[in-house]
Amino acid sequence: MPKRARITAFALLSSVALLTSACTGQSSSGADDDASKETTINFWHAWSADSEVKAVKTLVAGFEKAHPNIHVNVVGNMTDDKINQALRAGGSKAPDVISSFTTNAVGKFCSSGALVDLNPFFEKAGIDPDKTFPAAMNEYTQFDGDRCSVPLLGDAYGLYYNKTAFEKAGISAPPKTWSEFESDAKKLTIPQGDGFKQLGFMPNYHGWETTTEHYLGQFSPTYFDKSGKSTIATDPAVADAFTVQKKLVDALGGYRKLETYRSKLGDEWGPKHPFHTGQVAMQLDGEWRLGMALEAKPGFEIGVAPLPVPDDQADQYGKGYITGTIAGIAATSKKQNAAWELVKYITTDTDAVVGFSNAIHNVPSTLAALKSPKLEYDPRFKTFLDIAANPDSTTAPSSVNGGVYLTTIQELGYAYESGKVTDLDKGLADAARQIDTDIAQAK
Amino acid sequence: MSTLTLASKRRRSALRTLAFMSPWLIGFAVFFAYPLISTVYFSFMHYDGFRPPTWSGTQNWTYVFEHYPFFWPALRNTLWLVVVMVSLRVVFGLGIGLLITKIKTGTGVFRTLFYLPYLAPPVAATMAFAFLLNPGTGPVNSILEKVGIPAPGWFNDPTWSKPALTLLALWGIGDLMVIFMAALLDVPQEQYEAAELDGASAWQRFRYVTLPNISPIVMFAVVTGVIQTMQYYTQPLIAGKVASGVIQGAGTQFEPGYPDKSTLTLPQLVYNLGFQRFDYGSACVVALVLFALSMAFTAFLMRRRGGLIQAGD
Questions:
Q1: CB neighbours (10 Å) of residue A15?
Q2: Torsion sign over Cα B246, B249, B253, B256
Q3: Residue A197 pLDDT grade (very low, low, confident, very high; cuts 50, 70, 90)
């Protein structure tokens, strides 16, 4: 290569390397600001409904009243994509505090250093997270000992059931084990033509909230061993969950018939949800369904209970799957002490958490708030408060690549329920290998 | 002295040329060359958008081709759409264009009727199609059942989901129809008259007069169709979401191409890898595969175009 060409090529490659590396975000410590001085911080959140935005404003107003020197610039309706870009870019308009609905991203936020580790802040404030937050929420807000997020209200999953249909079918109480559940689901199913007049339960993984991770929550799987390797092929709880679901699918008419019936039903977020209309007698769902179902004014009485547990875990009846919203402090923030004051207030101040929970009807995320007499709720909502406080309740652990492992499990679930995969052990072994490969790629 | 003046003039002339070309050169460098070089560069880097990129060699390439479970299904789907959907769109667009240029009355009405669907926003159009083709409640299947034709599962059946997307693409044929109409009206009438005098049939007139005259437009339609299909994102994503009943949003898992990955396309993988997994390196690999495929299809078609014109001559 001629000398001039070599120089040109070198210059070009150097420019490209400089330009591309200049685009990368750099974490910097911003915890040396004085939180007692006059300052303004940016708070980005994802809530978008008018009532939710109003509730966030009220929450922040309470903080500003308690901390008159810290002003909060609240920005709502921020999707994860926008939050991720801002966390990467930093700058004066970027958020100091973020909140996201995606608990699955915690592993990524922690391992990449996008959000700061809050352990030193908790220690300095004399707050013990283990004694402050419910166990499952405590788990999904940290990764590998790095607590880069805090729970900001939560979601608990339980069983909704049509009490009127139960009475007609001669069922006196909600099922406590999966065996009872299958028996009740069959009793509640009334066939009609090629479909159903009433389906006891929609077991398919596309049945709105009947996802693999929500089923699995009732079986308390481990997901990973201490070295971070997937245990789904070796933990019998996972195979048990897949087997129970497949048995339900087969018992209630088979995958194809159920999928065809599902395609005729209303959508998850509309008033024509099949539980509201009485087309499905039992529904696995989050605490928010109660308000939505009551608003739809169904022609039957709604019952709420914890989801069933495996027959050999009957003593753990009352547990459930937990997830929720998280809050954290951007590593690029230059006002981390002031940001911590906001995070501490909105996530650990009992009255603030209770007020916010009352306003947006999510489950409170501290143990103290869960017991607060100031909580306002329909008596049936108590089931979800108990599930959230239950130490046996579970969640999906954080992973370095977010929820990719859950997608892999979900894909196996689709293949197994439809009959595309028949050898479950092999399917689980393949999925475990895929999960390990994906994690290695992300590290 | 005269040599120096000449050299100076040449240099000045070259600079002037460059100055006139500079808007294009800057645009090319900023919007094409730099992104392309960056994409190649990042495909060999481990980069999550937060930490500085680090060299990873061919790891991203190996991961995408050997371990990423959605790559091959998405590639197969994309190629199916390129071959079937693009071909049918060109044939259908040309057919409608021919039909409207032939009819004597109501041309404006038909032209408007066929063009209007193209103006429908892709999200709204896809949702409307998902409603029409709903296997349980959609009017299309109700009609098919009434006339005794077995009703397909459309967007809920992996066998029928891509044909359903093709139907949606054919419904929005207005863009190609207008282009083909303009080309068809440009074909010299005397050539048709000469062919008729020679006793050419309608098919022969189309094959040996119409087609060679409009071949550049056919080529344009095919090449742009291939490139658009390589970027096909919104319609398959929305169709899959509506049919599955799962809304992709904050806190939900990646839902790859319901049903059974049949609506998964390569651009969806770029989004999944880049903006959900933050694995920009692997996302760049998929983007480069798309680029290479687009280039290969375009080069192949450009070569074939020579043959098409020759056959018509």
A1: 12
A2: positive
A3: very high
B25-34: Cβ within 8 A, 24+ apart? B34/A16, B34/A19
**A325 closest CA partner among A158, A67, A64, A141:** A141
Q: Chain B partners of A411 at a C-beta cutoff of 8 Å?
A: 69, 256
The residue assigned the tokens 């290479």 is B292
A100, A208, A437 member nearest B245 (Cβ): A208
Q: Do A16 and B254 touch (CB under 8 A)?
A: no
Query: What domains, with CATH codes, occur in chain B?
Result: 2-60 (no CATH), 69-312 (1.10.3720.10)
The whole-angstrom separation of Cα A260 and Cα A365 is 39
Longest dimension (CA), chain B: 93
Tell me which H or E stretch contains A190.
Answer: strand A190-192
- In a mutational test of the A interface, the residue from B46, B48, B141 whose CB has the highest number of chain A CBs within 10 Å is B48
Distance from C-alpha of B175 to C-alpha of B3, rounded to nearest angstrom: 56
| Residue contacts between A and B (CB atoms, under 8 Å) | 122
Distance, in Å, from the CA atom of A398 to the CA atom of A400, rounded to the nearest integer, reads 7
Q: Say how far apart CA A418 and CA A281 lie, in whole Å.
A: 23
Confidence band, pLDDT 50/70/90 cuts, at residue B249: low
Residue B131 tokens, joined: 């409603």
Q: What is the chain B residue with the closest CA to A399?
A: B277
* For residue A6, pLDDT beyond 90: no
Amino acid identity of residue A280, one-letter, is V
User: Chain A contact for B135, CB < 8 A?
Assistant: yes
ipTM above 0.90, yes or no: no
Question: A150-162 and A302-305 as β-strands: parallel, antiparallel, unpaired?
Answer: antiparallel
pLDDT for A2: 53
Please state, as a whole number, how many other Cβ atoms lie within 10 Å of the Cβ of residue A182.
20
Burial of B135-158, coded b for 16+ CB within 10 Å and e otherwise, reads: bbebebbeeeeeeeeebbbbbbbb
Q: Which of the residue ranges A40-54, B50-64, B253-267 would you say has the lowest mean pLDDT?
A: B253-267
Domains and their CATH numbers in chain A: 39-155+322-389 (3.40.190.10), 157-321+399-442 (3.40.190.10)
- The model's pLDDT over A148-189, given as tens digits with 9 standing for 90+, comes to 999 999 999 999 999 999 999 999 999 999 999 999 999 999
* Residue A414 with chain B: CB contacts under 8 Å: 260
Q: Considering Cα of A79, then A80, then A82, then A83, what sign does the dihedral take?
A: positive
What's the pLDDT at A34? 86
